[in-house]
Design a protein that fits this description.
Layout lengths: L1 H33 L1
């Protein structure tokens, strides 16, 4: 269980970072158009 937990954390951390970066890139044009 510990090894699986470690692997899932190591995989989810970069995925969450990429999702946040893509989200910012996708939302930034909307804010630019809004303001």
């Amino acid at each position: 269980m510990r090894w699986q937990y470690r692997e899932t954390v190591l995989v989810l951390c970069p995925l969450a970072f990429l999702i946040t970066m893509v989200g910012r890139l996708a939302i930034s044009p909307v804010f630019d158009l809004g303001y």
